[in-house]
TrEMBL record:
Residues 18-119 form the Glycosyltransferase subfamily 4-like N-terminal domain. It comes from Mesorhizobium argentiipisi. CDD domains: GT4_AviGT4-like. Signal peptide: none annotated. PANTHER family: SULFOQUINOVOSYL TRANSFERASE SQD2. This is Glycosyltransferase family 4 protein. It comes from the Bacteria. Pfam families: Glyco_transf_4, Glycos_transf_1. Residues 171-309 form the Glycosyl transferase family domain. Gene3D superfamilies: Glycogen Phosphorylase B. InterPro entries: Glyco_trans_1, Glyco_trans_4-like_N, Glycosyltransferase_grp1.
Length: 364
C-alpha cells in the first residue's frame, strides 16, 4: 500500500528527547516500511526514517529559536499533503484537528489518531461538526467525553521489542519520567518517595508554560529532599538505563491520561508501575501483574513497599503480549485496508474493524 504518515512538526520523528506522538509515528512508520509498504512521512527535516521524507520545516519547531508560531508551518505542511493526496491509498494524520476542513473530499481514505485529551470544553462542538472524519482513539477512556463521532477503533501504542531491553534486577530507586507539569504529579512523586524512604530520580522536560510551576512548587521540594535527584530531559539510550534500573516507575497523574507511553516503556524494561487510577491507567496496567493501581498517596506509599513482590520477567512478558509495535502495526493495517476498500465500519465499538482486521492485516 502507498501510505502517508503526517506527523506534528514540534519534534523530529523520532524525537531527540521528549515526544510521545512523534515517537509512535516513527515506530509505526518503520514497521510499515519493514513489512514492504511504500510510506511517505511528512515531518520536520531533521527526522530520521527509512520512508520517503517530505521535510516540512528544516528542524523540529521546539528546537528552533526562530520559530515563534507553529501554526504557519503546519498549514504549509497540510497544503502539501492536500496537493499530493491522490498519490496515496491511505493518509494517516497525527496532527490533532487542523486538517479537518481540507480533507473533506478524500476523508474516506484518511484516518486520524487522536493523541491528546478530549475532555476540554471547546472540543465538543468542533467534533460534532466534523463527525464524519474517521478517527482512532488510543484508549477507550479517551473517548468518554466525546460526542457521537466516526470511531474506527481503539489502537493501543506499541514499541519495538528490542528498543528497551529487559533488566532482571533493579538498583533500588524510584523513577519519574515525563513533563514537569501539575497534571503529571511530580509533587506527589516526591512525597511518595519521601514517605516510602526511597531515592527518587526525576527525568523530565520543563516547558515554558510550566516554568513557574517548576520554580515555585517543584524545585523547592527537590532541593529540600536529599533523596530526590533531578536529571532533566533524557534521550532514548539514557532512558533504557534510567527505567531499566528503577525498582518502579511512579505515575501519579492528576488528569485523564489518554494512554501513558512511559508506562509501557517501563514495562518493556521489566519495571513495574505504581500509578494513580486515572484515565487509561486501568486499560494499560494489569493490576498485580505489570504494576499496582492506587487511589491516593497513602496507597501509593504502601504499593511502593510491596512492588518488589511483582515478577519483573512477568512484567516484560505482559509488554510482549500487549504492547509491541508489531501488534500496533497490524491493528492499523486492518484499518488501512478497510479504508482502501471504502468499506463501512460498525461504528462506536472498541474496534470497529476487529472482526476482520487480523485476517486482512495478515495478508501484508
Amino acid at each position: 500500500m502507498k501510505i502517508a504518515q503526517i506527523a506534528p512538526l514540534t519534534e523530529s520523528v523520532p524525537p531527540k528527547l521528549y515526544g510521545g506522538t512523534e515517537r509512535i509515528v516513527s515506530y509505526l512508520t518503520e514497521e510499515l516500511v519493514r513489512r514492504g509498504h511504500d510510506v511517505t512521512l511528512f515531518a520536520s527535516g531533521d527526522s530520521r526514517t527509512s520512508a520517503e521524507l517530505v521535510a516540512c520545516c528544516d528542524v523540529a519547531l521546539r528546537l528552533n529559536p526562530k520559530a515563534q508560531n507553529p501554526i504557519p508551518y503546519h498549514v504549509m505542511m497540510l497544503e502539501e499533503v492536500r496537493r499530493r493526496a491522490n498519490e496515496f491509498d491511505v493518509l494517516h494524520f497525527h496532527v490533532d484537528v487542523l486538517h479537518f476542513p481540507i480533507i473533506r473530499e478524500f476523508a474516506r481514505r484518511t484516518v486520524t489518531t487522536l493523541h491528546g485529551r478530549l475532555d476540554l470544553p471547546d472540543l465538543a462542538q468542533l467534533y460534532a461538526m466534523f463527525n464524519d472524519i474517521p478517527l482512532v482513539s488510543i484508549s477507550d477512556d479517551q473517548r468518554r467525553p466525546m460526542p457521537p463521532v466516526n470511531w474506527l477503533g481503539t489502537v493501543y501504542h506499541g514499541l519495538p521489542n528490542d528498543i528497551l531491553p529487559f533488566r532482571p534486577k533493579a538498583s533500588g530507586y524510584l523513577a519519574f519520567l515525563g513533563r514537569i507539569s501539575p497534571e503529571k504529579g511530580p509533587e506527589a512523586a516526591i512525597e511518595i518517595a519521601a514517605r516510602a524512604g526511597m531515592p527518587l530520580k526525576i527525568a523530565a522536560k520543563i516547558d515554558a508554560v510550566d516554568l513557574s510551576f517548576w520554580s515555585d512548587r517543584v524545585e523547592p521540594q527537590v532541593l529540600r529532599h536529599s533523596n530526590v535527584e533531578f536529571i532533566g530531559e533524557i534521550d532514548e539510550r539514557a532512558k533504557a538505563e534510567f527505567l531499566g534500573n528503577a525498582t518502579a516507575l511512579l505515575f501519579p497523574i492528576d488528569w485523564p491520561e489518554p494512554f501513558g507511553l512511559v508506562t509501557i516503556e517501563a514495562m518493556a524494561c521489566g519495571t513495574p508501575v505504581v500509578a494513580f487510577n486515572r484515565g487509561a491507567v486501568p486499560e494499560v496496567i494489569d493490576h498485580g501483574v505489570s504494576g499496582l493501581i492506587v487511589e491516593s498517596i497513602d496507597e501509593a506509599v504502601e504499593a511502593v513497599r510491596r512492588i518488589g513482590s511483582l515478577d519483573r520477567a512477568r512484567v516484560r512478558k505482559t509488554f510482549e503480549r500487549r504492547f509491541t509495535v508489531g501488534r500496533m502495526c497490524s491493528d492499523y493495517l486492518g484499518i488501512y485496508r478497510l479504508l482502501a476498500r471504502d468499506e463501512q465500519f460498525p461504528l462506536g465499538s472498541r474496534n470497529g474493524f476487529a472482526e476482520n482486521a487480523a485476517e486482512i492485516a495478515s495478508t501484508f
